[in-house]
Amino acid sequence: MQTGKFTGFEVRIEEPGIAWIEFNEPAKLNGMSVGKKRDLIEVLTQAQMDNGIRVIVFIGTGRGFCAGDDLQAYSAPNANPDALMAPIPPGHDNAIGTYNGLRQVSQALNVAIRNLDKITIAAINGVAIQTGLSLALACDFKIAAKSARLGSATLRFGLLPDEGGQYLLLQHLGLTTTLDFILRKRIVEADTALSMGLVNEVVADADLQAHVQALATELANGPQVSMRLLKRSIYQATELTFAQSLDEIAAKTAITDHHPDAREGVSAFREKRTPAFNAWLQKDQ
User: Fold this and answer.
1) Which domains does the chain have, with CATH numbers?
2) First to last CA, the chain
């Protein structure tokens, strides 16, 4: 997986296999552009295929996690010298262009996050609005700083949560609260977001990075094969019947029951010690 600076973010890797993706345009509250989304999709594709990556963390610099789309950036192609992906036409200049832009770029980013079998964490350091909120909700864990604020707010501009925000909010909030949240253009503080079920935890601003690092390390040290398959199974269960989900997890269990991590887990339990999972990853590296 490539590290360094790309379009609007930079990537670093910390042990044991934690990829930190840090948005680095604080003057723009880390707003999204076509170039940034395309580079993020490429980086996430690399992370998925890199056995050394176990957990991916998203975090912003400054006062914003991501305050939505940077509308000014959409009027010009990506000319960033650090870009991973070549520029494409801005699009959105007609109906079919908007449709294609959403399907190939904006929606594709959240699909890329959800398609990861590696565990993802959104460390919400500041405002997370519209696209920024949807990106956070697409992650498996959402940890918010005390000063964070979260909202959809697209209707303030007469726009829609077209990157899949309505679906992600519905999964977190249910029908009644989603309608209230979106149609009333609500932007809520971190503690309210916690009570609503939008985030897992709220921590002091100064503690956010260390807290997320500890969580990421805990998850990275878990049995990666079982965790990745279980993650996929949980998400799929939200859209399957009970009978289908039983069959689906039985197929995955046929893999995990015969994996070395399962043998290590049983041995550690019998020997009353902490299991040392992921020997297969150490050999791979």
Assistant:
1) 4-220 (3.90.226.10), 224-284 (1.10.12.10)
2) 13
